[in-house]
Amino acid sequence: MLVTLRPWTSDDAADLMAARQADPDLDRQFGDRPQSLDEYERFIENELTVEPGQEISLAIDVDGRAIGCVGVACERGDKPADGDRRAWVHYWTAPEHRGSGLASRACASLVTYAFSQMGVTRVELGHRADNVASRRVALKSGFTPSDDGAPAPRNSRERFAVESHQRHASDPAPDLRPIPILL
Predict the structure, then answer these.
(1) If DSSP states are collapsed to H, E and C, what string results for the chain?
(2) Chain segment 30-75, per-residue pLDDT in tens
(3) Residue 138: which of 123, 150, 149, 153 has the closest Cα?
């Protein structure tokens, strides 16, 4: 099995559409868009992009097929006076690949890249408090629970409680096999 992290392409639209349709949680995250294959292609082109040094969304590729996504986005604007450049990470995998460890490896790999190549000093993530799988991914990829008291964000349909986590550049790297990043 060959696993890489790589930029999304319009050729991945069918894989993205299938993953979303197979999982009500992903469907909830996407909201009412996209619907058609053309809309997924435009979504990839407009939303799942690579902006070096600022924002990266990568396909988790297994043997040439996009089976998930991992992304990191840095705070916009100038670097804070305290030198603490923060970023936010997100991840998901298609239902048939959950529990394989790929999301943890992908998350850890991209966060290490953000520390070494993007000048990030702290990465944060949040997930639904009742999402045990996302919590497991966060912990396995080296994050520690944060006591920042994350607010409950509002999406288009409901409010929900969020658990937040953080990882600092000075924290020990998790003992996970890295996934090559092809940029």
Answers:
(1) CCEEEEECCHHHHHHHHHHHHHCHHHHHHHCCCCCCHHHHHHHHHHHCCEECCCEEEEEEEECCEEEEEEEEEECCCCCCCCCCCEEEEEEEECHHHCCCCHHHHHHHHHHHHHHHHCCCCEEEEEEECCCHHHHHHHHHCCCEECCCCCCCCECCCCECCEEEEEEECCCCCCCCCCCCECC
(2) 767 788 999 999 999 999 999 988 999 999 999 999 999 999 999 8
(3) 123
> What's the pTM?
0.90
